[in-house]
Amino acid sequence: LSPPPLTPGLSPSQGKGLFATRSIRKGEVVFVEKPVVSSQFLWNALYNYRACDHCLRALETAEENAQRLLGRSSLVLPHPEQCSIRKDLHQQCPRCQVTYCSAECRQAALEQYHQVLCLGPSHDDPTHPLNKLQEAWRNMHYPPETSSIMLMARMVATVKQAKDKDWWIKAFSQFCSKTANEEEEIAHKLLGDKFKGQLELLRLLFTEALYDEQLSRWFTPEGFRSLFALVGTNGQGIGTSSLSQWVHACDALDLPMLQREELDAFIDQLYKDIEKESGEFLNCEGSGLYVLQSCCNHSCIPNAETSFPDNNFLLHLTALEDIEAGEEICISYLDCCQRERSRHSRNKILRENYLFTCSCPKCLAQADDPDVTSDEEEEAEGETDDAELEDEMTDV
């Protein structure tokens, strides 16, 4: 938990950066990282996207996952042996019944934050302070979700449970913080036009549920706004899917040509049918704070990308091209379709969501392009949705 200090050659707005200490080849996993804290999105959980309460591993079998997304309980997936879900290992908290994928996850949650956050028999009590906080958040932050108040709650609970509270406070303080004006913009982005009133209501509910004297600054209006800024600018989205895992496993099968063609056709049709029924909401989704990943700056031509191939919160950073020793490792904060838009459109998204203007080689090369978004570009957005969705469904 010791990211590098301000790096020479980086602008103050970038603050930190991640650089290769050796040559890295294209396709190589640069690192695998566990989050300091993570949480599933609240609407995602409410709509029965079942995930481990600690590591976000999908808990449904691939077949159950497909049946729910398709709205068809009679669906049978071929090659069920390629599903990696082990229901015999699942465990619940004996007090509040939240589910974990393993005894290890249940114990890890208990030791880090769950003693503070366990609702016990009040799990379904709408008057419990934590349930009131979650309900208020859901009423302010509708899908598509980008964050969760429970990520902040787990930060507080982690400090409250810790023997060395100062160590954890220092660990969280390493994540990028913003000025008051920028914090306000982030809060506005998360909560909409009436954010000031909403933010104050959340702060009062947050205080009622979780107040701790040693963290008193986090419960002040300024400190609570800074928590929003922290998770808004550093939170990394996490997506898990047992169906996606099954698809990847099927792709790796050595099958006769005819069987391969039949299986590929079945999967293609399955995803088309799911798209009609469930749209873009395919994965168990949440967010987490990652120390190393948060040091990666953005580029519109990234040389690395994040993924979650283990079907849990373990983040893999993989090189998209050869990276030489001393070269900065950059990821993209934009999706594939957004990166193909004009410099003006890309920077509009980056300023609204991350409060900076990009100066990567691609943006510098397009500096003289007109600062307008063409009608053709707006139309192209709709045309790319299908391709983007297909990538989303299979690239967890």
TrEMBL record:
Q: Where is this region: Disordered?
A: 368-396
Name the keywords, alphabetized.
Cytoplasm, Metal-binding, Methyltransferase, S-adenosyl-L-methionine, Transferase, Zinc, Zinc-finger
**EC number(s) reported in the record:** 2.1.1.359, 2.1.1.372
Q: Where in the cell is it found?
A: Cytoplasm
Query: SET domain location, by residue?
Result: 4-334
Please give one Gene Ontology molecular function term for this protein. Answer: histone H4K20 trimethyltransferase activity
Q: Name one GO biological process term.
A: negative regulation of gene expression, epigenetic
- Protein name (record): Protein-lysine N-trimethyltransferase SMYD5
Q: Which gene encodes it?
A: Smyd5
